Every structure is written in structure tokens, then in C-alpha cells.
Amino acid sequence: MLPGLLERAGMSERGSITAFYTVLVEGDGTGDPIAEESRGILDGHVVLSRAIAARSHFPAIDVLQSRSRVMDAVVSRTHRKAASFFRELLSRHAETEFLINVGEYKQGGDPLTDRAVESIDELREFLRQSEDEISGFEETVAWMSRLTA
Questions:
Q1: Which CB contacts under 8 angstroms, 24+ apart, belong to 104-112?
Q2: CA Rg, the chain, in Å?
Q3: C-beta neighbour count of 14 within 10 angstroms
Q4: Phi-psi bin for 108: left (phi > 0), alpha (psi -120 to 50), beta?
Q5: Which domain holds residue 97?
Q6: Which residues are paired to 15 by β-bridges?
Q7: What is the mean pLDDT of the chain?
């Protein structure tokens, strides 16, 4: 039943339907059958995080859990590379965060991890946006490209 509902959106010879679906889950949503099936069917999903919101970081989008299956078809190669490296830096920092918090992280062991640790504040600032702040597409892509150069 769920695939039939979700897959109605899109283009056909009779017209097109654009849809934004919302799936509210308890906790982190992993293991929830509706959320998991929706992720498998839809072209993309944006995951909001209570932990990110608790840091007064808005919008509270968990970039590492969010996906777009159509991004490669709609952005330039340069944009795609910058976004991929941006995600890689966020991921590397997330993997190392426990060591950082307990004082066990030692700089110099891995250049990519070092860069992630050094740039995490700038990466997080890039992901924040106040309600009254306006950021254009080209300006945003240029900023991300500078952060990942």
C-alpha cells in the first residue's frame, strides 16, 4: 500500500504530481518500518535531529542521515564534488568526536581527520541559517566550495 501511495507523485502522460511527505518517528527513527520503507521508495529524505536542535543549530538537519537520489542529475560536477567532500569531513569528525571529547584525539595521525577537526566550526556555521537570513543558491555553492577547497 505504501509504495502505491508514495509512487503516485511524479510525471505521467496525464500530468504531474509534486509531493512532500512527512514521516514522524519516535527516537532516531532507525528500525521504524514506515520510515525505512519510505526511505527506500522516495527520491530523497531530510532527517531532522533532536540532538542537533539541542545545540541551538537550526535548521536541525542531520546531513549524514539525509539523502538525495537525484542530486547527481541536477547539480554540476564541481558542486557534487564539494558536497561529497563536505559530507566526508562531517563523517570523519563524527567518527572522531568521542576521542575528542575524552581528550584522546591526537593531531597528526590522519590528514583528513585533522582537517575535519580543524574545520568543524566552519562546517557547522555553513549549515546554520536564521529565519530572516537569505542565502542564494550560487552564493551557497561558492561558500561550500571554499570550505572544501
A1: 112/88
A2: 18
A3: 6
A4: left
A5: 71-147
A6: 12
A7: 91
